[in-house]
């Protein structure tokens, strides 16, 4: 097999839903997280603490977080939940909930063993953590989950862009301002025991500057973010403009800049249908972590025309066909894709999901 083990970061509850125009009830978002937790996924990006005027759909993320803390979703293994935070206000709003949750009486969950960049990928340390937050035993209704409920861990995600135009549109600041803004927040977060994931948006194409984003700019940013203490960089093809040759060039440039494949995740939107081809190229470059959204949901409100993330169902089917293990149950995740797309009134764009359900 090209890869033995591949880790999937399910971004459906955040990237998948953030662009939906009609308001989705918090209960539906919570139910989505609960169902996803029972599929064998171990990392779920569950919401964001951004400005509600900028992204109204994510305004209920506080309810989603509180619900997860109060009543841990059932899962076969400990789940890591990620929260997208744009600035100090977002950090404050997130920490406020973590600090007042009865499940986290000491304020913060126990810090995972030192997530330094020299000790390999720091994510997913939860399974070794004997002090992981206690988990509730209710929530048994979630899609035939196994009876042993596991613990939970939380991580924060920050995001910046590889082009100035996108940086301004998405976060109202320059690239340098966002680096300056995040440096102290990342340090604070890691000190509190939350590993930090950092996204670099528009790495393979920008809605305002076109497809030819400088790969050296992406590599410089990735190196700076790792130096600042990021535990993982998610390199994002926001617009889906990435092609196999340009993905190859970008990964080569990252490697030449000294960025290790273990520190990278790739985040493909499938606007031009190139996500799985680009995943293949990434696997050949040693990448073993990929982001996807159930049902192929997703899109960034500040990237006009961009459509969904690669569907988790399609990614899982593809990886399994290569002999790679993901731990994800394709049937379960296919049912969830069907359910959530119907729930929000969108077509299910996961080909492998639909085909799996039809057989
Ligand atoms: P701004 O207007 O420059 O904010 O927005 P500000 O710092 O000037 O503050 C203005 C007001 O907003 C203040 O309130 C703040 O308190 C409040 P006032 O004093 O006027 O009453 N405020 C907030 N309120 C709640 N939560 C907050 C917050 N921050 C400030 N966090 C800001 C700057 C970054 C906040 C805004 O641009 C924003 O929220 N952007 C987020 C956009 C977004 O979420 N985009 C989608 C996610 S990124 C993505 O999808 C890409 C990804 O998937 C990877 C890929 O595919 O590329 C990750
Ligand atoms: Mg995205």
Automatic annotation (TrEMBL):
Domain of life where this protein originates: Eukaryota
Residue ranges, compositional bias (Polar residues): 122-138
SUPFAM superfamilies: Aldolase
Pathway connected to this protein: Metabolic intermediate metabolism; (S)-3-hydroxy-3-methylglutaryl-CoA degradation; acetoacetate from (S)-3-hydroxy-3-methylglutaryl-CoA: step 1/1
CDD domains: DRE_TIM_HMGL (cd07938)
EC numbers on record: 4.1.3.4
Key word Metal-binding present: yes
Swiss-Prot/TrEMBL catalytic activity: (3S)-3-hydroxy-3-methylglutaryl-CoA = acetoacetate + acetyl-CoA
Pfam family, one: HMGL-like
Annotated InterPro entries: Aldolase_TIM, HMGL, PYR_CT
Coiled coil: none
Keyword Signal (UniProt): no
Entry keyword set: Lyase, Metal-binding
Domain Pyruvate carboxyltransferase: 6-334
Region feature (Disordered): 100-151
Family: Belongs to the HMG-CoA lyase family.
Record protein name field: hydroxymethylglutaryl-CoA lyase
């Amino acid at each position: 097999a090209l890869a033995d083990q591949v880790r999937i970061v399910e971004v459906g509850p955040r990237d998948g839903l953030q662009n939906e125009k009609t308001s989705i009830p918090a209960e539906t978002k919570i139910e989505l997280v609960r169902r996803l937790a029972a599929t064998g996924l171990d990392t779920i990006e569950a919401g964001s603490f951004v400005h509600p005027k900028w992204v109204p759909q994510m305004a209920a993320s506080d309810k989603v977080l509180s619900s997860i803390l109060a009543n841990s979703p059932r899962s076969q293994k400990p789940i890591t939940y990620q929260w997208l935070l744009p600035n100090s206000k977002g950090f404050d709003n997130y920490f406020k909930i973590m600090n007042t949750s009865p499940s986290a009486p000491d304020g913060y969950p126990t810090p995972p063993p030192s997530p330094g960049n020299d000790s390999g990928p720091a994510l997913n340390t939860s399974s070794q953590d004997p002090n992981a937050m206690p988990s509730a035993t209710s929530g048994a209704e979630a899609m035939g989950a196994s009876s042993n409920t596991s613990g939970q861990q939380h991580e924060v995600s920050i995001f910046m862009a590889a082009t100035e135009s996108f940086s301004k549109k998405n976060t109202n600041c320059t690239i340098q301002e966002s680096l300056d803004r995040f440096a102290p927040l990342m340090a604070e977060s890691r000190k509190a025991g939350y590993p930090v994931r950092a996204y670099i948006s528009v790495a393979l194409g920008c809605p305002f500057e076109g497809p030819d984003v400088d790969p050296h700019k992406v590599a410089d940013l990735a190196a700076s973010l790792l130096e600042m203490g990021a535990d993982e960089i998610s390199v994002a093809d926001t617009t889906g403009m990435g092609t196999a040759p340009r993905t190859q060039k970008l990964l080569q440039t990252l490697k030449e800049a000294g960025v290790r494949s273990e520190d990278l995740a790739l985040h493909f939107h499938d606007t031009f249908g190139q996500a799985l081809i680009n995943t293949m190229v990434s696997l050949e470059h040693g990448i073993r972590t990929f982001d996807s959204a159930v049902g192929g949901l997703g899109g960034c409100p500040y990237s006009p025309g961009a459509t969904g993330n690669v569907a988790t169902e399609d990614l899982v089917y593809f990886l399994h066909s290569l002999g790679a293990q993901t731990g994800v149950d394709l049937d379960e995740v296919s049912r969830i894709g069907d359910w959530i797309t119907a729930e929000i009134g969108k077509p299910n764009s996961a080909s492998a999901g639909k085909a799996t359900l039809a057989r």
